[in-house]
Design goal:
The complex is a heterodimer. Chain A is about 35% helix and about 20% strand. By secondary structure, chain A is an alpha/beta fold. Chain B has a single domain, classed as Rossmann fold, CATH 3.40.50.970. The structure holds thiamine diphosphate.
Chain lengths: ~350, ~325
């Protein structure tokens, strides 16, 4: 329900609005990627930009990710502020050198004399049977490698503020948006992601987590679409008299360990929800951030609801078996508290 | 050289089978996805890339291939799979995500794998190239017969991996053929907007190998050009590059409104549909009678109906089977 002075936008529109607003005030901002021009992006996040800014600043590229992401690094080092799109994060395989050896390292290699002010936006996530080369999150892969900030909005308000912040940042930012939150009808969007977005430009601080729901019995930490699963699980737990706090990470790099630790110190219990593969990833990092700091706050062993360590299957029943969802979060709580 | 009468009949049968198959898939794809289109719903969820219009490339090339020859395909693989002899029942079941599918439902339509006829796919652009070149290398090293063919779209030729694989195939003189299906569009981006040369067959010069372009989406001309390239590969004379002008009669994927196409482009393409054209030519040249063609068409339709029925009636996989087959047994 939209209230009278509410301005509900999808994440896709919020992203495009932030980019357009920066393009209006900063002539160095430009956009490159596959199908981001006339089509407006496969996920709608560049819609309207070509009409307003033209082909000089909104550039459809060949299917040449190594070239155009590498080119973005060079342009960024030379005074531009490129926004490049990697259509699906799964495609990082063909261009990762430009990302993690160039984009992520050139500031450091140059002793800080180079700046790399660029945004790499990329879609993540499954749940719609697109199989194992078009459904991954690989949050942990990107967050693991030093030198790039990593953000992952769960709603349109954060999406706009993070995009503005990313565009103004002098360091590279990987902006990971979940397909299931984009507001593209054909993906069956989560309605909770479409929220009020102020028209005027604003920036969020990168590296700050948010309390999406306050509670006292258990902390559920997640990001992107997992935040919505966590909120649904929290609502169900509330019916059983359990008060769950939901932490939306918002940023993976820098990671807001303070907020996570403070929440777990209050609740004494931790469940991490991550659509990325379980092992060697975000879920383990969150748990380690708590336990290495002060294990005595925990009343129970932490739990993870994450994608098992297998490629993402196509068949609906198999994919749904693997994906985190509210049921699995409630089940994790039940296991955690079973005598 | 023109295809023989038998080859023509086979080519026509494969083209019609492919088209009937795509028509059946297209219809079923929308089940459960209306009135609001949601890709996740219905008996065939996920993306769907149809190959209507591109059948001549598949049959013109695969007419020269044996089951032991290797083919790698792309996100748009059905026509090539059918022409290569991939089991239609199990392919249909895979597209439905059923337990009886080629991969037990793990792969879906972009990941059609059939070891029996050496067919594999990748949904990542140009990434069929390396594995095809590697198969060609393996045949050469083992002294085993067989050639490898990588089918790619014209958009793939701007991908770094494409060039690396071409060079490798050429420098090692491998029994390999790259077939570019030039349908002029990479999703919404036209070949003209993305490609520095008018046609990609000229890029063969960069690798010192023959490069040929076939215009007109003509199965006979494709058959002739592919025959030469594959014969060269079989004779140990090294790789070739073949670019074929073709077109897609469907959107990039199902649900694509194709707003990027110029007015009227689509109508002109439908007027050039290669299947009625081949039918008319065979009648015209006397290589088939009306009754023979009707027989081929009926048989193709029956084959597709049977495959679709098999897929529909097959059981879903057990959900926990998702955790199996990660490593070789
Ligand atoms: C490395 C990589 N980049 C981008 C994509 C997304 N994508 C899928 S199909 C496609 C267009 C491919 O065009 P082309 O190779 O000409 O084949 P066609 O779709 O026309 O058959 C793109 C960009 C991808 N799958 N892999």
């Amino acid at each position: 329900m939209t209230k009278p002075n509410e301005r509900k936008l999808t994440i896709a529109r919020a992203m495009a609005e932030a980019v357009a607003q920066e393009m209006r005030i900063d002539p160095t901002v430009f956009v490159m990627g596959e199908d981001i021009g006339a089509l407006g992006g496969v996920y709608g996040n560049t819609r309207g930009l070509l009409d307003e800014f033209g082909t000089e600043r909104v550039r459809d590229t060949p299917i040449s990710e190594t070239a155009f992401i590498g080119a973005a690094v060079g342009a960024a080092q030379d005074g531009m502020r490129p926004v490049v799109e990697l259509m699906f994060v799964d495609f990082f395989g063909v261009c990762f050198d430009a990302i993690y050896n160039l984009m992520a390292k050139n500031i450091y290699f140059s002793g800080g004399s180079f700046r790399v002010p660029m945004v790499l936006m990329t879609s993540t996530g499954g749940g719609y049977s697109d199989a194992g080369q078009h459904s991954q999150c690989v949050y942990g892969t990107f967050a693991h490698l030093p030198g790039m900030k990593v953000v992952a909005p769960s709603n349109a308000y954060d999406a706009k503020g993070l995009m503005t912040a990313a565009l103004r940042d002098d360091s590279p930012v990987v902006y990971m948006y979940h397909k299931g939150l984009q507001g593209m009808g054909w993906l069956g969007t989560e309605p909770g992601a479409t929220v009020h977005v102020p028209e005027e430009s604003y920036a969020l601080e990168i590296g700050k987590a948010k309390i999406a729901r306050a509670g006292s019995d258990v902390t559920i930490v997640s990001l992107g679409i997992g935040v919505h699963h966590a909120l649904k699980a929290a609502a169900r737990l509330a019916e059983q008299g359990v008060s769950a706090e939901v932490v939306d990470l918002v940023s993976l790099v820098p990671l807001d360990r303070e907020t996570i630790r403070a929440s777990v110190a209050k609740t004494g219990r931790l469940i991490v929800v991550d659509e990325d593969y379980m092992s060697y990833g975000v879920s383990g990092e969150i748990i380690a951030s708590v336990t290495e700091h002060d294990i005595s706050v925990l009343k129970a062993a932490p739990k993870r609801v994450a994608f098992p360590d297998v490629p993402i299957p196509f068949a609906r029943v198999m994919e749904q078996f693997c994906l985190p969802d509210p049921d699995k979060i409630v089940a994790a709580w039940e296991q955690m508290t079973a005598a | 050289m023109s295809p023989t009468r038998d080859e023509q009949h086979w080519m026509y049968r494969m083209m019609v089978t492919s088209r009937r198959f795509e028509e059946a898939i297209a219809k079923i794809y929308f089940e459960g996805k209306t009135p609001v289109f949601n890709m996740a719903k219905g008996p065939i969820p996920g993306e769907m890339h149809l190959s209507d219009g591109q059948e001549p490339v598949a049959v013109g090339v695969c007419a020269h291939l044996e089951p032991h020859d290797v083919v790698t395909a792309t996100h748009r693989p059905h026509h090539q799979a059918i022409a290569k002899g991939v089991d239609l029942d199990r392919m249909a079941a895979e597209i439905f995500g059923k337990a009886t599918g080629l991969s037990g439902g793990r792969g879906g339509h972009m990941h059609i794998f059939d070891a029996d006829v050496n067919f594999a796919c990748s949904g990542i652009i140009a990434q069929g190239m390396g594995p095809a070149v590697g198969a060609a290398l393996s045949r050469k090293m083992q002294g085993k017969p067989g050639v490898a063919v990588a089918f790619v779209g014209e958009g793939a030729v701007n991908q770094g991996g494409w060039h690396e694989a071409m060079n490798l195939a050429a420098v090692w003189q491998l029994p390999f053929v790259c077939v570019i299906e030039d349908n002029a569009w990479g999703i919404s981006v036209s070949k003209r907007a993305s490609t520095a040369v008018a046609h990609n067959h000229v890029r063969a010069a960069a690798y010192g190998i023959p490069g040929v372009r076939v215009e007109g989406n003509d199965p006979y001309a494709i058959h002739a050009a592919a025959g030469e390239a594959i014969a060269r590969a079989r004779a140990g004379e090294g790789p070739s590059l073949l670019e074929v002008e073709t077109f897609r009669l469907a959107g990039h994927f199902m649900g694509d409104a194709e707003g990027y196409r110029p007015e009227g482009e689509k109508d002109a393409l439908f007027a050039r549909d290669p299947i009625p054209a081949m039918r008319a030519r065979m009648l015209d040249e006397g290589s088939a009678t009306e009754a023979e063609l009707a027989g081929i068409e009926a048989a193709a339709a029956a084959r597709v109906d049977a495959a679709i029925a098999f897929a529909r009636e097959s059981a879903d996989p057990a959900p926990e089977d998702a955790l199996t087959r990660v490593f070789a047994a």
